[in-house]
């Protein structure tokens, strides 16, 4: 009996150690967003090649697309919606004198990437088993219904952005208002 407990303990310790190494590697990838997304794009290309080669697996890709659409909705949604009262007004800053409150997502970029990557890996693995292949002849219907869901979801997200006056993306570095391109050019050319 003691031998079984010892074997189970060593096996559990090996799994814990393996999980710790996996978590360390995952933590190191946090700062390399471009490389992470390039790896995910490679997985997407691999899945597309696999489905094209098999001429099957459209339902797997459809389910993956719905899953990614669900993740995208959480990625574009703020963690807490501002309350809009008729007396107080919206809580997000509307003028330069208002307090700055950063946009905090419901699903962070890293978690979004991680879930999408896991989805692609699982989808690629599913293409190796015939049990996941459904004979769904009109695959353009799947594509069309996915595009309809995409349009409805994006329309809802955009209307929410307009209603609560938030933008989920920040492009480039925030610059002070007095910074102008011509002012910089004057520094170099007098």
Percent strand? under 5%
How far the N terminus sits from the C terminus, by CA atoms, comes to 86 Å
- Globally, the shape reads globular
Could you tell me the mean pLDDT? Answer: 81
Residue stretches low in confidence (pLDDT < 50, at least 5 long) are: none
The overall strand count is 2
Give a written overview of the molecule:
With 190 residues, the chain is an all-alpha fold. It has 2 domains: 1-30; 36-189, no CATH class. It contains 6 helices and 2 strands. It has helices at residues 2-28, 33-54, 58-76, 109-126, 139-164, 181-189; strands spanning 84-85, 89-90. A hairpin with a 3-residue loop joins strand 1 and strand 2. The chain is globular.
Keywords:
2% strand; two-stranded antiparallel ribbon; mainly alpha; 190 residues
Nutshell version of this structure?
The chain is mainly alpha-helical. It is 64% helix and 2% strand. The chain has a two-stranded antiparallel ribbon with strand order 1-2.
Topology:
Elements: H1 2-28, H2 33-54, H3 58-76, E1 84-85, E2 89-90, H4 109-126, H5 139-164, H6 181-189
Antiparallel strand pairs: 1-2
């Amino acid at each position: 009996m003691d031998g079984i407990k010892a074997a189970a303990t060593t096996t559990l310790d090996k799994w814990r150690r393996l999980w710790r190494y996996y978590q360390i590697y995952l933590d190191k990838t946090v700062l390399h967003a471009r490389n992470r997304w390039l790896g995910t794009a490679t997985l997407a290309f691999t899945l597309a090649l696999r489905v094209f080669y098999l001429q099957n697996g459209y339902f797997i890709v459809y389910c993956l697309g719905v899953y990614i659409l669900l993740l995208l909705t959480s990625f574009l949604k703020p963690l807490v919606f501002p309350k809009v009262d008729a007396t107080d007004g919206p809580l997000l800053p509307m003028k330069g004198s208002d307090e700055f409150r950063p946009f905090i997502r419901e699903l962070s970029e890293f978690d979004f990437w991680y879930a999408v990557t896991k989805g692609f890996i699982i989808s690629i693995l599913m293409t190796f088993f015939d049990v996941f292949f459904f004979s769904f002849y009109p695959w353009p219907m799947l594509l069309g219904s996915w595009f309809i869901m995409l349009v409805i979801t994006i329309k809802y997200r955009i209307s929410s952005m307009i209603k609560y006056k938030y933008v989920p993306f920040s492009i480039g570095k925030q610059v002070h208002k007095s910074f102008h391109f011509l002012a910089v050019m004057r520094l170099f050319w007098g």
